[in-house]
């Protein structure tokens, strides 16, 4: 698992070698964080597209097995023998702003999805059970309301108690 300490652990582990080059599978995807931490530390980082180690694994003897060790070996082989390695450089401010903008867009899309889902649930409520202009506080007050659907019909009001008349002449 890659976290904020992974690059430091990797750097300490490889101190015994004087010449170090790093190859990260998918440096623009899942390996982005690690690749950027290494590049920001001034290390040489090669981006290995994820399709290439997969091909190398399939071509290797017993290529049907997928393990972390075998994956690391195939990533290293591809990076070592590739004629035109794509190097990863530290991101500049415009790239960071692009990432923040993408994150903002994702949050806005998620908010819109949640609002649309809430709208669909409120649409199933009987008329007059929910306010028309919702705020976060008003939506939180709706926790007790339940939609009327075929699976969950609207509860009937309690019956009035009937007095029992004894049968007689």
UniProtKB/TrEMBL annotation:
Biased composition annotated in UniProt, kind: Basic residues: 153-163
Disordered: annotated segments: 125-169
Record protein name field: Transposase
Limits of the Transposase IS110-like N-terminal domain: 9-125
Pfam families: DEDD_Tnp_IS110 (PF01548)
Coiled coil: none
Species this protein is from: Streptomyces milbemycinicus
Compositionally biased residues, Basic and acidic residues: 135-144
